Amino acid sequence: MFGKLSPRNIALTFIMCYLFLYIFRLYISGNMGLYIHPRYNGFVVIMSFFAATLLLAGLVTGYRQKAAAHTESRPIRLIDAIVVIFLVAGFVLPAKPLSERTVGERGILTPTVRYSHRPDRCPTVTPTAIRGWVMQLSEFHPDCSDNKPIELIARVLPSDSVPLPDGMVYFGRVVISCCVIDARPYALPLINNTGKSHASDTWLHVFGRIRIKTLNQQPQFVIEPTNIKEIADPSKPYEYINDRSYITQPEIGQ
Amino acid sequence: MKSKHTAMKSLGIRTPVTIGLLSSASITLMSWLFLANRDNLQQLVVSPAARERFFTSLTTSLQDFMTLALSIVIEAAPFIVLGVTISVVVQSFSLSNKLLARLPKNKLGRALSLSFAGIAMPVCECGNVPVARSLMIKGLSARDSMVFLLSAPSINIVTFLATWEAFNFNRGVAIVRVCATLILANLTAYIVTRYVNPEQLLDKNFSAICKERHDDHGYTWTTMLSLFRSELWQIMRLLILGATIAAASQIIIPRDIITSIADNPLLAVFAMLILAFVVSICSSVDAFFALAYAHVFSVGALVTFLVAGPMVDIKMLTLLKTTFTARTLLVLTACVAIGAAVIGLGLSYVW
After folding, report:
1. Complex ipTM, two decimals?
2. Which among A230, B14, B18, B87 is placed 20 to 30 Å from B161, CA to CA?
């Protein structure tokens, strides 16, 4: 009825097992974070292991009942070939974060200066990650944040969509709420007062203060740095929404 | 003519939707290659530097395409495994008969029960497809299964709480999302089953499976494991196809083009419909995704995204193709798109 142990079904079992083992390999190698939010890691790994076990169990029980099973020889379809090509490409190509070009096309999210907020209501905590800064700066009166010290590790983002004046770059990270599909860059303009230019995609460790400057005829929050250090690419290029590690263990000192 | 048809059939190119998808994907890809790299193309023949730039650009696009497609597959795979497991259990232990027997007999009660059935199964849309298939095999009507499939991804606790939390500055969005989904899901299911010929509603293969397995009882472990493999492959391969199309669309259509038309209410709603269709994001977290556009788009446009996305997107349509015909899916997509656009536009003017 379901086509028991035909060569096609053996092949399908191995193809699907390969997919689940590939997912397991991504987890072991620490590359799962390049695709999905870490809060799903446990669920993904458990279900992959579960599925691979059931598929292999089906192979064993099917083999034992080989005599009773009828063979099924449906032709290989185009869609089957697409699946195989996709899995082979996934195996051959190394796991990589999204390129700066694709990230840049999604539009950089920067905080908005709103003088309409109540000036007597200011935040009591200091964010440690870029999304926290963008959200907090947008949510409170600008006076609350003007001249506030900031320390941040992030990368230089391309500024093709909304160009910045000379000597400034977008400084931020790609933020993920579920998987790379919803990745969105959050950033603050950074005044580059060191005299050294930083290419797009360079990772920096910046110490400085939040200032309000007029850019493109509009007031905007910017970072006025006191110290900028170029650093190596971190193992976690993305920032994840509601990931507590960014609050308790910021990647300071890399 | 006959031999050509047979050759296509042997390749699995058996339906207009497959041919349509492949043709449109090829045409879009070629157009994009031409438009995006028009200057490069003119110099390709004469300049080695231009050739190098072009191939670097192509390699980067391919790498991003794989990253995006894999992220969809990895994120959705566990939900599909869960859904298929539930589907096999439901089919094998006669649970479906008990579940179907408990459904109210009157139409309104039945529709409401199925609309809120997602509360008992809080997984995203991918996981619901195999469950709906198993219930249909055991006798659930196409209309009832459509109500469940369209409502469950949005009307469940996880999605509601995520929307409530994401739009904490405007909590009405979460409530409007539930109400709009409830109305649109039932209306769409009614229209589709009313105006599509009953014999053309379901995919031929699936209809055959329904007839074959409707009265099956007494499953053994071997048949259950075999059913698990068969169902999993049916869904997973279409998930991979959907993921590749969704990822390719994201590479081909730059996001900033979609968001650049946010000022006009009509175009904004249209843009969010396209975005929802292309992005194919999981319903349990789409509110956080929509939040990133809250400063640009009206509430109406955002609601359109939140209502239409879980019902029809590239990934979901390819999954639904395991069950329904291309004609059914075309009418379904049109109903959802028009309905969600009307709701979004209405909200844009009153909210």
Report:
1. 0.85
2. B87
